Model the fold of this input.
Amino acid sequence: MHPAGPEGALMVIARRLARADASVCLTGAGVSAESGIPTFRDAAKGLWSRFDPEQLASADGFRNNPDLVWRWYRDRVKAVQDAQPNPGHVALARLARSLDGFTTITQNVDDLHERAGSADVVHLHGRLTAYRCLECGTPVQLDLAQRLAAEPSVCAACAGLIRPGVVWFGELLDGGLWQRACAACQQAQVMLVVGTSGLVWPAAELPLLARRAGAHVVEVNPEDTELTGWADTCVRGRSGEVLPVLADQVERMVS
Ligand code: OAD
Done:
């Protein structure tokens, strides 16, 4: 805890952000939790609690039981559609508007950052609104009825099954997006790490890269995580409560 309390700690972080030429934020499922989207590892109601993640989020799992995997993602499409961005998403969009050189990197596959007003978000783990053929890889646009259908569509080019365009277990991240994320972290003077357990690599490496390159790393999370030991400052709280205060302070400093 900062000697001047949570507000004092946020003031110091706001000052660092306002002075920085470049800053970056890495978000995880915790940022969307306050919009009613469960996190992955919440023991009671987390997204992986009822299923083996390898069965739901892998190409093999999709081949073994395409309808089950498809319906699981279809339910997530519906849940995201029904959800609204929360004050944490809105605060990050405000920070991006107020600060020069602020990059938002997310592990989330929802579009709540964009719907809150953030532009050019680096979606390391893909997006729920993107689809491609499981066999030939051709990107495919699906209309809402196809996205919400009980079974996956079929590729017009090769008759393969259409899969969600998210990164599954055992798959590599998009090389261009990863390079962009690494460059942003290596240039940043301040990095916010918000709502992620830091358990999934290589995304969890980004705060380490930033720290080694000299950034001040700030964790915003109600709990300790794998990344806590790497953070220069930890703010224990919910992103929807902490980030709006930070955005208010930054806006006052840069206006
Ligand atoms: P996790 O479910 O692993 O972690 C969520 C984190 O959010 C935890 O550290 C919680 O303490 C924190 N949290 C919960 N509520 C919060 C709140 N209101 N404000 C701030 N933090 C809060 O989710 P991720 O770290 O995002 O990958 O998981 C990383 C990746 O693992 C996901 O992108 C997904 C999964 O496997 C793929 O699908 C490829």
